[in-house]
Amino acid sequence: MRHLFVAALFLVACSTGTTESDTSTSTPASTTMTPTTQGIGADRAFLPPPPVPDGPLEAQTAVSLENLLVDVFTTNWDTSAVEGLVDGGDPRTAWLVADLLRFYQTGAEMETLTQAFVDLTGAAHDPGEVEFVWATNHLIAWDLPAWDGYAEAKRALFGQLEPTWDRFFEEDHGIDWRLVTWGGVAPDKRPLDDNGECGCIPALDHPLTTDASGGGWYPDHNIIFGVVVNDEAVALPKHQMEVHEMVNLTLGGRELGIPYCTLCGSAQAYYVDDVTRVDRLVLRTSGLLSRSNKLMYDLSTGSAIDTFTGRALSGLLGADGVVLEQVSVVASRWGEWKQAHPDTQILAEDGGIGRSYVEDPLGERDAAGPIFPVGDVDPRLTAQEKVVGVISPDGTPVAFPVNTARAVLADGDIEFHGLTARLEDSIRVYDSAGSELVSHEAFWFAWSQFHEGTLLWEPRE
Q: Can you tell me the mean pLDDT for 134-140?
């Protein structure tokens, strides 16, 4: 069997005053949005989706699918099974073809799969894009249905290669398997407080921190992710978070799990010490993605968790309907943060594990847009524009474009949809009673796809 973890081309390191209310306006989410994407290659609209049948797969198509999965990761793979899928003519099987393109990105197999996708869907091949990104972007943008047995087919593809992933299929409580792909890395399976090497994206558990004066090694203009709990503050330097993508620590007497999805530009913080039937969750990177957002999991229960929303999607936590409570994470410059929080702690220069960190580990990886499939992108902003997002007390998701909002906030507060945005250590948002709402930064494509119907603040011209 060809091992999964040598197959990828991508590796993810996977990211005061008052202003009058009439200085802003809102743009509601469009119900007739023109699908666009900003992945590898040029922005473009997607053609209409192919018609799809209802019900189970035709018998011969099901047989071809079964034959395909038997030998798909061996040197004996018979591509005639792919021809059988094409002959069956069911566009829904294009989901599995796109999944296979994730693992076969060169050679004759890739060419066979690419042509099969074209034949099944009518999509025009774009040689400027990585084939699996091109194919999956189309399927997501179309919201093309899968057949009822798709999850089991995907389990045969993914689960046989990594037992950690197989557990996610056992008790599925809301995973949309169409959107799940491999991020290019192995899952982190180390127990809590094992900060040794892992051949994965290594979470950093209960790391060594220093006071602000001990953080003189970190330039004032560089970005940190800041968290405050019970009047205790900590700063997590961005370049260290780009390496670990997950920190488990104690702050203000509480246990937190802090994932950072480099692909969607989102650092978030979750309480992990108040979940019924579990003493403490141990958050880890699974190695899987859902629409270019890392899929994390709890090591103690094996439950998959939506990193962006904190909702458990499988296992014990999914069965219990667990949604992790969040606390605000702000992206700030180190100089601004320590001025606002002089008693802050900051991660040690070596992470407390004797490690060296390069200043910019990701380089220009995301310069051309999302490198993994995201499908259509809400066209009100570009895919990777940074926003600060909150959920208002009435349940409405609201987003403030970071650069535009900071420019306006330099002259005073922003009043919008009953909320007040202020420029403090970074942008923070308050409700009408003056209570801070949980917020975090993210790329627009990520915030808008996980919070459909977002109300977008824009300055009045």
A: 97
Q: Is the pLDDT of residue 70 over 90?
A: no
Residue 167: φ, ψ to 5°: -65, -30
Average pLDDT, the chain: 90
Q: Tokens 């940190």 belong to which residue? A: 224
Residue 259 and residue 103: Cα distance in Å, rounded? 26
Residue 213 neighbours by CB under 8 Å, 6+ apart: none
Q: With 0-12 CB in 10 A as exposed, 13-18 as middle and 19+ as buried, what is 22?
A: exposed
* Residue 312 near residue 322, CB atoms below 8 Å: yes
Contact (CB, 8 A) for 398 and 417: yes
CB within 8 Å of 65: residues ≥ 6 apart: 57, 81, 85, 93, 96, 153
- Tens of pLDDT, residue by residue over 95-131, are 999 999 999 999 999 999 999 999 999 999 988 899 9
pTM of structure: 0.90
Q: How far is CA 344 from the centre of its chain?
A: 28
Q: Domain limits of the chain?
A: 37-145, 182-347
Instruction: Find, among 15, 16, 14, 19, the residue nearest to 400 by Cα.
Output: 19
Residue showing tokens 């004797």: 354
CA dihedral in degrees (181, 186, 187, 189; nearest 10)?
170
Report the candidate in 444, 446, 438 with the shortest Cα–Cα distance to residue 227.
438
Please tell me the distance from the alpha carbon of residue 423 to that of residue 421, in angstroms, as a whole number. Answer: 7
Taking residues 55-61, report their average pLDDT: 97
